[in-house]
């Protein structure tokens, strides 16, 4: 097992029609990490786009992955990549949208359930474990009686788009800190009042 390698997965749906949706915020944050690494995504036989690099020389190696499947089937490509890189769930970080956090909030979590998130549900099922780290990127709750399933498949509002770059940078920085220093150190930084 590669003890300095992390599989970092950004959840979303494939194709340009979904790229700006709230459900794709995990992949948006992954793009920020790739930019930090100066790495480009390439097609991998596991059915994902993959980029690799180290945030700092001598630091942990990050394998960034965007599953090529729809959100609800994310687990297949993630499990195949974990096998390919000889990594278990303890070396997996999943970046995903989180309805239960206010927009513009990043929280980190180790293990736990899927909370109704079908991408997480499929990863847990296909990995055979829920013991992986999550970078939860707050998108807030839908207004009024709007169905959450519709809400996540809509673009961010104009006001949200203005502060979205900061949220994505925060998620990218939190992910890199988690990989370099562990989840407790990252939680102490990102969960503290700001």
Q: What is the fold's blueprint, element by element?
A:
Blueprint: E1 5-10, H1 25-37, E2 42-44, E3 48-53, E4 61-67, H2 75-84, E5 92-98, E6 106-110, H3 118-127, E7 133-138, H4 148-151, H5 158-181, H6 183-190
Parallel strand pairs: 1-4, 1-5, 5-7
Antiparallel strand pairs: 2-3, 3-4, 6-7
Any key phrases for this structure?
194 residues; alpha/beta; Rossmann fold; 7-stranded mixed β-sheet; 6 helices; 7 strands; 36% helix
Task: Please summarize what this structure is.
Helices cover 36% and strands 21% of the residues. By secondary structure, the chain is of the alpha/beta class.
Give your account of this protein's structure:
By secondary structure, the protein is α/β, with parallel strands linked by helices. Helix content is 36%, strand content 21%. It has six helices and seven strands; from the N terminus they run E-H-E-E-E-H-E-E-H-E-H-H-H. It has helices at 25-37, 75-84, 118-127, 148-151, 158-181, 183-190, and strands at residues 5-10, 42-44, 48-53, 61-67, 92-98, 106-110, 133-138. A seven-stranded mixed β-sheet has the order 2-3-4-1-5-7-6, with helices on both faces. Helix 1 packs across helix 5, helix 2 crosses helix 3 (118-127) and helix 5 packs antiparallel against helix 6 (183-190). The longest helix has 24 residues, at 158-181.
């Amino acid at each position: 097992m590669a003890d300095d390698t992390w599989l970092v997965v950004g959840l979303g749906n494939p194709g340009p029609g979904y790229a700006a949706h709230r459900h794709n915020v995990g992949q948006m944050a992954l793009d920020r990490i790739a930019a930090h690494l100066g790495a480009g995504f390439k097609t991998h036989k596991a059915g994902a786009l993959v980029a690799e690099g180290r945030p700092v020389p001598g630091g942990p190696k990050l394998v960034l992955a965007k599953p090529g499947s729809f959100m609800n089937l994310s687990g297949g490509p993630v499990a195949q990549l974990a096998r390919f890189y000889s990594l278990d769930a303890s070396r997996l970080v999943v970046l995903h949208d989180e309805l239960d956090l206010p927009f513009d909030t990043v929280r980190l979590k180790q293990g736990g359930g899927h909370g109704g998130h079908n991408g997480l549900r499929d990863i847990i099922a296909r990995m055979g474990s829920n013991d992986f780290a999550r970078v939860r990127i707050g998108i807030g709750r839908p207004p009024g009686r709007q169905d959450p399933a519709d809400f996540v498949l809509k673009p961010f509002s104009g006001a949200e788009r203005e502060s979205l770059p900061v949220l994505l940078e925060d998620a990218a920085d939190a992910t890199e800190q988690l990989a370099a220093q562990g989840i407790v150190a990252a939680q102490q930084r990102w969960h503290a009042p700001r």
